[in-house]
Design goal:
Layout lengths: L1 H11 L6 H11 L5 E5 L7 H15 L3 E5 L3 H7 L3 E5 L2 E6 L1 H8 L3 E6 L4 H7 L2 E7 L2 E7 L9 E2 L4 H11 L3
Helix pairs in contact: 1-2
């Protein structure tokens, strides 16, 4: 495994900034470890490099346990067959990516609201996330039933899993 990755590195990325990332993975494989921990390994990579790194890490993960610490949901979706959501050193949730999404399916509601109304929604509903789109605030709310008129049921995602877990455990 090490020789394949090292040869890959010299041939394709020797003069690129990602050389250090790949070299670090190659170093980590010295001595045939049973466990590798990577922290935010794809932060700052362009989409092509991220894809290449996902492929390498997936291949490594077939032979070695890889613990991936990341805030990048696409990394979890692409690489992990198990996930853990932690906050302040406490495990709040663990499961499979698909299983955790399935557990909240039907409980995520979305609505575009005026920015001036956002505080009202935050105070009266369990808003798990929000973002601005076309000048409006789009809120995602976690609720068993439609919170009010105008909300539409959204397809749950891993981001919703993360945000609903963190907001449920705010202290």
């Amino acid at each position: 495994m090490f020789r394949e990755i090292y040869a890959f590195e010299l041939r394709t990325t020797f003069r690129r900034p990602t050389t250090y990332l790949y070299f670090g993975i190659a170093q980590a494989l010295l001595g045939n470890p049973k466990l590798i921990i990577v922290d935010e390994p794809t932060a700052g990579l362009d989409p092509m490099e991220r894809n290449r790194f996902h492929n390498i890490l997936s291949e490594i993960g077939e032979q070695v346990i890889v613990i991936l610490s990341t805030h990048i949901v696409d990394d979890v979706r692409s690489l992990c067959n198990r996930l853990v959501v932690m906050n302040n050193g406490t495990i709040l949730l663990e499961g499979t990516p698909a299983g955790t999404v399935e557990a909240i399916q039907g409980k995520i509601w979305s609505k575009a609201v005026e920015k001036t109304d956002f505080t009202h929604y935050r105070q009266t509903m369990r808003v798990i996330s929000h973002h601005v789109s076309e000048g409006k605030m789009v809120v995602h709310v976690y609720a068993d039933e439609r919170p009010e008129e105008g909300f539409v049921q959204a397809d749950a995602s891993l981001e919703d899993v993360y945000f609903s877990t963190i907001t449920e455990n705010r202290g």
